[in-house]
Design a protein that fits this description.
Blueprint (H helix, E strand, L loop, with lengths): L1 E9 L10 H10 L4 E7 L9 E3 L2 E9 L6 E4 L12 H10 L3 E4 L28 E6 H7 L4 H10 L10 H13 L4 E5 L6 E4 L2 E4 L3 H4 L3 E7 L7 H14 L2 E5 L9 E6 L2 E4 L3 E2 L5 E6 L5 E7 L2 E7 L2 E6 L3 E9 L7 E6 L2 E3 L1
Length: about 350
């Protein structure tokens, strides 16, 4: 299997980002990414610039809605009108158009020290028939963690990783709830990159450049074959992997998430993330971490099921459930840090 890192939810100068598509491609290549998904506000203006640039596949989606209930839509050819007051209509229209939709930063919290407390959470529940959701959004989470000016300045200048302690617990609970009780919901990680200047008190700085943020929260796709050098084929591979849930989220600031593995083996069958196993069958789950200093956690139906220290683990499971893996990175002489979150394997 092959794993490829990508950064989802990137804003360009077509909306409120500071960089051109070329600027973004250059920084993505420098960060070692394989793909980037542009999702400017309410516009597919960058669609004509979809291409492979500097070895990076540039795909274009859109972020729908402005006031709240932001929705990422991929694989569209025509824009979908915003409707913050009835986001279910947006979800349905994206689905009818053959698009792939993700709820963006559902529990976003602002900070009065950044953008005057602006936040854009998802306000209307429940909603259905969406394909996935952001379980970890770098910019949204980082901003919402800053409740004091001193802590904001300390984290920014001395410990940027300190603010990124784990995906919001509300996101994980919601994700697990939908997967257990409703249809399959794909979890992705994203950056929400803008590369615009912030006012930190009396200091004005560009907090996160594209180059920096492309090494934070990334979504790795898992492919059986190498990623094609042909644009149309590569686009199908990436969109197909995201649709199937053959992907995982990694906080790459801690350590590269490349070559993580989570799959089920039942007889001669191999089932990757996002896959389903039906009927009474013996199933063995395999988890491989990209780093030796790891703690592997198996989650069943939203609850901790097994824990194992080391770079790999195998578990026999007999009970039906929604199984996913969490990998914590263990810095030397420090506590394990939340790092990788896989999509589930479904034992029905």
């Amino acid at each position: 299997m092959y794993t490829y890192p990508g950064n989802i939810h990137v804003h360009s100068s077509y909306s409120d980002g500071s960089g051109s598509i070329e600027d973004i491609a250059v920084d993505a290549a420098a960060a070692g990414l394989s793909y980037v998904i542009i999702s400017d506000h309410e516009t597919l203006g960058a669609l004509s610039e979809e291409s492979i640039r500097h070895g990076v596949l540039i795909l274009v989606g859109v972020e729908i809605n402005r006031l709240h209930s932001h929705y990422l839509a991929l694989d569209l050819t025509k824009p979908i009108p915003s409707n913050s007051e009835d986001p279910q209509q947006v979800i349905d229209q994206v689905r009818e158009a053959g698009g792939l939709g993700f709820i963006a930063h559902p529990f976003e919290k602002g900070s009065r020290y950044l953008e005057k407390g602006k936040a854009y959470p998802w306000k209307l529940w429940p909603v259905f028939r969406f394909e996935g959701m952001e379980i970890w959004n770098f910019t949204s989470h980082w901003r919402g963690r800053h409740r004091s000016l001193l802590k904001t300045l300390y984290w920014f200048f001395f410990d940027r990783k300190g603010a990124m302690d784990a995906p919001p617990s509300e996101c994980l609970r919601l994700w697990d709830c939908y997967n257990i009780h409703k249809d399959k919901v794909i979890g992705i990680g994203s950056s929400d990159a803008h590369a615009f200047p912030y006012n930190l008190g009396l200091i004005k700085v560009k907090v996160f450049t594209y180059r920096y943020i492309f090494n934070t929260i990334n979504t790795y796709i898992v492919l059986e074959d190498e990623l094609s050098q042909n644009f149309e084929l590569a686009k199908q591979q990436i969109i197909g992997a995201l649709r199937d849930g053959r992907c995982y989220v990694s906080y790459d600031s801690l350590h590269s998430g490349r070559n993580c593995g989570f799959y089920a083996q039942s007889g001669s069958d191999i089932i990757q993330m996002g896959g389903e196993i039906s009927g009474k069958r013996k199933v063995r789950l395999h988890i491989k971490s990209p780093a030796r200093r790891s703690q592997i956690r198996l989650i069943r139906d939203g609850k901790l099921f097994k824990v194992c220290d080391g770079p790999q683990a195998e578990f026999n499971v007999t009970e039906p459930g929604v199984y996913r893996a969490e990998v914590f990175y263990r810095p030397f002489l420090r506590r394990p840090r939340p790092w990788i979150y896989t999509n589930p394997i479904y034992l029905r």
